[in-house]
Amino acid sequence: MTDVARSTPRTGDSVIVERGALDALLGSIARQGYQVLGPTVHDGAIVYREVHSAADLPIGWGDEQDGGTYRLRRREDEAVFGYAVGPQSWKQFLHPPRLRLWRARRGQNGAGLEIVEEPTDAPRYAFFGVRSCELHAIAIQDRVFLPGAHPDLSYASRREDALLVAVNCGEPSGTCFCVSMGTGPKASAGYDLALTEVLDGGGHRFVIEVGSDRGALVLDGVPHRAADAADARDAEQVTAYAVARMGREMPEVDLRALLYANYEHPRWDEVAERCLTCGNCTMVCPTCFCTSAEDTADLTGEEAEHSRRWESCFSVHFSHVTGGEARLSPRSRYRQWMTHKLATWFDQFGTSGCVGCGRCITWCPVGIDITEEVSAILSNPTDPTPPSEAS
Amino acid sequence: MTPRAHRVVSRRRETADTWTLALESLPGQKLPLFAPGQFGMLYKFGVGEVPISVSGASTALDPLRCTVRAVGSVSSALAATAPGDLVGLRGPYGSRWPLAEAVAGDVVIVAGGLGLAPLRPAIHHLLAHRNEYERVIVSYGGRSADEMLFVPELEEWRGRFDLDVDVIVDIAGPDWHGKVGVVTKLVELAAFDPNNTIAMMCGPEVMLRFAALTLRSRGVPKERIYISMERNMHCAVAQCGHCQFGPMFVCREGPVQRYDVVEPWLRVQEL
Amino acid sequence: MESIEETLAATRMFHNLTPEQLSGVAQLGEEVEFTDRARLMTEGEPAESFYLIREGFVALQTEAPTGAITIETLHGGDPVGWSWLFEPHLAHFDARSRGVTYAVRFDGASLRERCVQDPGLGYELMRSFASVIVERLDATRLQLLDVYGRVNGG
Known about the structure:
The complex is a heterotrimer. Chain A has 13 helices and 16 strands. Chain A is of the alpha+beta class. In chain A, a hairpin with a 2-residue loop joins β15 and β16 (324-325). Chain A is globular and about 70 Å long. The mean pLDDT of chain B is 95. Chain B is built from six helices and 15 strands. In chain B, α3 (151-158) links the parallel β8 and β9. Chain C has one domain (4-143): Jelly Rolls. In chain C, the strands form two sheets. In chain C, strands 1-8-3-6 form a four-stranded antiparallel beta sheet. In chain C, β4 and β5 (67-75) form a beta hairpin. Chains B and C meet through β10, α4 and α5 of B and β4, β5 and α4 of C.
């Protein structure tokens, strides 16, 4: 297994791994010390859980997605990745829903105060089956948590240790729009390995691109052969198929300029009549990152904890300021979410906050479609003076 | 960032609901250094954290001072901390008052209510480097006489020949013999050169907008007016999302912001 | 001290008057001085004068059972008294000097007469007063908003 004389794949190489060797691949990852997380079928959805063998994966499953609609369906083949993304994203592992930040202890008689930062140990994760949109989402969250004077150390350590095994989509869903967002369907960067599943007359195999030394190491010991031009064409066809089947399309205009110029557009009133401010979109969105602080003390009053938990800008108290809430109306909260995602995110982090995964559309109980909202404003812009350019 | 324990050495009541806490670091540790305008996060064991105005930088002679208004459970608990007790402090965060940019010109300080707290370190800096500036004007407005901060110090400042300090109240009690009206009145009356002035303002948003109008009508350009903004902070490091104001994270791009940058966003309702 | 005309020329509320118009108004003015606590006007009494404060401190007050309440204080450059504009020309508030106040007093009847004779001047004078009234209204509204209070303030 560790015979250094054998030729190991290198970054940039392309290899073929047969479907039958998938267990070997998963086993190799596990042997490198990773906890492998991947898509599984659970409770009628495809969610990310621990994966020990190929049998844990959603073999032969597909999905149907639309505004406010998600269903699994049985495929006619045994494709391993024949579906789009489910309600979860990888952010739950890199940026957990609940995280203790520090513990505090009082001394005897309430004197003294000791504050202990929470250590950042977390398992080494391997994310198996990361879609291109999700790779972009991770890169986007990297820009939120890593730069600056106060990087999020917990995120940084999980991120650094994580092995990313990407999958190039072959089966987009009714709400996917990565093409118009420039985020897929083919993974272009940020992965250790990228798999394209090919299932045709020639058999069932994976065209794997090696993205890093870590990825190359994983392939060492997994039966594979070098990919040839025909294999490359097979993989391209899978991608082309996906490109042609996007469920939605985001208008390819300067969204930042468009939304900055339309803060008082009547569409916000219209969507507010439908939006329940339930916050589902923020929970399923792979880039949403807002959190709230939480403090608890034990019954003795000697130990306390300060934690953070996921929060949604749709919650009324999110925008609490002295004297009340800055965003009381549902209109203002929907506008905040959408203008942050598509416009102010550019000023904050240099990219869009949206990766076109379509989760917000699928998991909105009333099926609000962010691409449709943009189109509605675009087709009838009203406010000619953007806030950032007003005199 | 994790807070460090600090000792409250004194607690002074400023108004009915506002206290100034003086903090010192524990033996072997150093106080964080706050530039005028920056804020810290103060932690009360078991209750939580709130952003606080640093109203006095620590010096060889003075401990660090923060002024807390008791509006919620955390701030009330902090304001009630007895001298000798320990609280957690982390910082410094945020942007600072443009004291370097204001050199060689007039400085107009406009404060309303609790807004004098984050401006106090700026005033101290101006006084400690008095020769670097031309006229220094402090215009302070409050609801009433007993809701003003730092009154003994204000009276001391008023006695100086190199400082123009004036105060005004919205509502005069029977014992008030000073000016009555809105703080914009003081800005109208103050003597400064609008072509060579930087204004630094802090107070309720409505007051800031009116004061900015008054300054502009006197010829001070928007680019030379700075305000301190307030939003809810949870993390103070631009990662929790709470303090967003349009594209700005008030904890990072603020709280001190230039008026021309912020003004268009101030006009958006429910931003 | 400068002449009345110079005072008017330097006063913001009259910036819309031509030098000729300023001169015309100045002729109707006389220099006055109020000692500490002297009254410029008394609520309910005929108020036929309009004052322009040159230097000093005037408290606009109203009597409450508990004593005099100061609603607003007026200073150099501020006009005092609008009752000369409209019948029945009775003061709405008390106005008292704090310390010595130097002012220019204009006789209301003479001013009104002049406005009738010279409608152009009359129009400009009304504009001047309107600008001050608007400013006072804004300020009063800001005071009413009680921005420093617990509920609305910051």
